[in-house]
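Usage

Read records sequentially. Each one opens with the input sequence:
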Amino acid sequence: MQEKLRDAWKVNSNERENDAIKKWLIEKGISNRGDRLLILWSRFSGKNGDIHIEHDTSYFGIRQIIDRAVDMYDAIMITGDKAYQTERRDTGWRKKDDSKKRGHQFDEIAEEVKNRVGVSKVFNITEFWNDEDSNELPKWGGNTRMGQFKLYEYFETHFKEVKHLGFRSGNLEVMAMLGYKVLYMEEYGSIGGERMAKWNDKRGKILDEKGISKETRLDIGYQRILLNVLPTRTGKYLQDKKAEIVKEVTERIKGMDEEEKNELVRKDKIRNKRNKIRKEETEEEVYKRVIKEEIDKEVYKRIKEEKNRPTIFYSR
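and closes with the structure output:
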């Protein structure tokens, strides 16, 4: 399966493309080989209107990780999103697609580390696909969605050990499916967290059932790191608000009479009458799952309403 994905997404580069990648890295002053490489993923899609704003990047958090990791790695790359779209160093800059004027904090972090250790070890390659100053980028397709993968494959083959670290996101899922070592962070009780945890929790059982021996299994390389506290002010606010909502909704559902609870279970059976896994559940398992789903549904709805309060989430 992994090989099919890699072929479909054209991850592997030919000699000409690899040469173009190397030249691009050299012209940017970026390490192109070594022993250990850490790739930190920046995420601001939540502040740009997408889901899970609580998983957006903290500049202070990135700085803390780098301070702890800089002596353990030959190079650290910061990739992904530069910053959220409304952020500018100067109030006169308002062009939404001008990525050059965002994410300056990562450049400052890299410069701080260079001044401290005496050598460049941290490199800001966020939104490298928008680099219009290089003739080398288009030669390996780095300015296209599919071509971007070739850079990470180049790192994988030119460093002895590569790790990707960031908050849970679709980009990190892709990296894991391509066979790279991925460590993703999220808080305890994260909405949707159980879905991704199943990648590891149920994988062994599924492969056993398919008769695939342990010796021939490819490592999925997708490791979950659970956090007690989220790093951003937005994340902390939502985390506290979610705890309040969970408590409130749990008490309300527990206060339902038997007829109301049975009605929830009845509707669930109608929705899942063709689901074989659901049919195998005991009555008690159905009841517990339905109550949990009702709580999750209400929490998701209420948290979404909280996210529409811009004065909370866009203060600097």
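Summary fields computed downstream for this record:
- The chain is about 45% helix and 10% strand.
- The chain has a mean pLDDT of 82.
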